[in-house]
Amino acid sequence: MIIKDKDSIASPTKNEAKGEAAEKQMAFLLNREFGESKDVFVFNDLRIERSGEVAQIDHLIVYRFGFVIIESKSIGNSVIINQHKEFEIRSKGIKSPIAQANLQGKLLKSYLRDSESELLTKMLNMQTTFTKCPLDVFVAVAEKTKIKRLGNVELPELKKADQVISSILDLMKRHKKASGLLSKPDGQFGMYKFKEEELHKIVDHLKASHTPSARAAAPKKSEPKDTKKMPTYICTHCHETNLTIEYGRSYYFKCHSCDGNTPIKNRCDTCNTVTRTRKS
Question: Going edge to edge, which strands form the sheet with 243-247?
Fold first, then answer.
């Protein structure tokens, strides 16, 4: 279930627009997988504040066995991971998005611990805690981005955006399998589980805790639908509408948010066949 959609940035720069496109692509994939789920809750662009610190979380999943944080990155055509697990783009080092996501997770747990007595129940008259609650992180890059790992370095947190979903599903299945009374021990998997009542309290608490940034765009007022308007075309890669029509072997849409190309396929309203696009 999608609890919160992404906030748009007012007058974004070119780099910010690319970052927003990456986040919207990941949000689309999360919605497709978990949009109708009743026990998996998704927050997009969640911003929480605690003691002067801020955690801006691109995507947060809350489910029975803990939390998952996803950091969406728009880092161009390729990224290099050296033997020290440092990130390099065009021969320049950048801050580790994995470390960034882990810091966000640490602040998130601290924020929730402030309200443990209201969010979590007691067991044997002792207050349960978020301390050992599983929190996994992933960094999602665009499908077109090439990941070059030097020295066969392992970095399981770094995934293509379309691979993140399958990794999360595997994580959930492993927790569920290990949580059974007769299940074989599997490390820390299945050792922590929210009660249904606790899960809904946490979701409601986080929803109420979101504080939009000063640059968040004001929500657009809904306009009456005009059935005579032309259809809105979107990029098939990032689902943005920032398109122009270009010509190669045939006419196509060029997306200025992700640089992707989308073929133009108009259909006849009467027979539904693809019509030929001509220059007017």
Answer: 243-247, 251-255, 261-263
pLDDT digits (tens, 9 = 90+) for 137-196: 999 998 888 888 887 888 899 999 989 999 999 999 999 999 988 888 888 898 899 999
Give 28-39 pLDDT, tens digit per residue.
999 999 999 999
3-state secondary structure the chain: CEEECCCCECCCCHHHHHHHHHHHHHHHHHHHHHCCCCCEEEEEEEEEEECCEEEEEEEEEEECCEEEEEEEECCCCEEEECCCCCEEECCEEECCHHHHHHHHHHHHHHHHHCCHHHHCCEECCEECCCCCCCEEEEEEECCCCEEEEHHHCCCCCEEEHHHHHHHHHHHHHHHHHHCCCCCCCCCCCCCCCCCHHHHHHHHHHHHHHCCCCCCECCCCCCCCCCCCCCCCCCCCCCCCCCEEEEECCCEEEEECCCCCEEECCCECCCCCCECCCCCC
Cα distances (angstroms) measured from residue 116 to each of 46, 108, 147, 176 = 20, 12, 40, 24
Range 116-120, long-range pairs (CB < 8 A, 24+ positions): 118/201, 118/205, 119/198, 119/201, 119/202, 119/205, 120/198
- Using 50, 70 and 90 to split pLDDT, how confident is the model at 214? confident
Would you say how long the chain is, in residues? 280
Give the CB-side neighbour count of residue 90, counting CA atoms within 13 A. Answer: 3
Token pair for 239 = 């689902």
- Determine the distance from the C-alpha atom of residue 152 to the mean position of all C-alpha atoms in its chain, rounded to a whole number: 27
pTM above 0.90, yes or no: no
Distance CA 90, CA 213 (A): 30
